[in-house]
Amino acid sequence: MNDTPAIQLKGISKSFGPVQANKDISIRVMPGTIHGIIGENGAGKSTLMSILYGFYKADAGEIFISGQKTEIPDSQAAIAAGIGMVFQHFKLVENFSVLENVVLGAEDGALLRPSLAKARALLTDLAREYELSVDPDETIEELSVGHQQRVEILKALYRQADILILDEPTGVLTPSEADHLFRILKGLRDEGKTIILITHKLREIMDVTDTVSVMRRGEMTATVKTAETNPQELAELMVGRKVLLRVDKVPAQPRGDVLKVENLSVVDEDGVERLKGIDFSIQGGEILGIAGVAGNGQSELLEVLGGYRAATGSVLLNGQTIDLTGSQSDGRTRRARGIAHVPEDRQREGLILDYSAWENMVFGYHHAPEYQASSLFMDNAAIRADTEAKMQRFDVRPPLPGLAAKNFSGGNQQKIVLAREIERDPDLLLVGQPTRGVDIGAIEFIHQQIVALRDRGKAILLVSVELDEILSLADRIVVMFDGQIMGERLAHSTDERELGLLMAGVTEGAA
Amino acid sequence: MDVIPKWADAILIPLISILLAFLISALVILAIGEDPVEALMLMINGTFGNSAGIGFMLFYATNYIFTGLAVAIAFHARLFNIGGEGQATLGGLGVALVCLSLPWPHWTLALPAALVGGAVFGALWALIPAYLQARRGSHIVITTIMFNFIASALMVYLLVEVLKPAGSMDPATPRFPPGASLPQMSDMLGLVGIPFSSAAPVNVSFFVALLACFLFWLLVWRTRLGYEIRAYGHSETAAEYAGISPTKIILIAMMISGGLAGCMAINNVMAAERLVLNSVEGAGFIGIAVALMGRSHPVGVLLASLLFGFLVQGGAEIDFWTNIPRELVIVIQALVILFTGALDNMVRMPLARLFLMFGRGRSGGAT
Question: Closest to A330 (Cβ–Cβ): which among B3, B243, B359?
Answer without folding.
Answer: B243
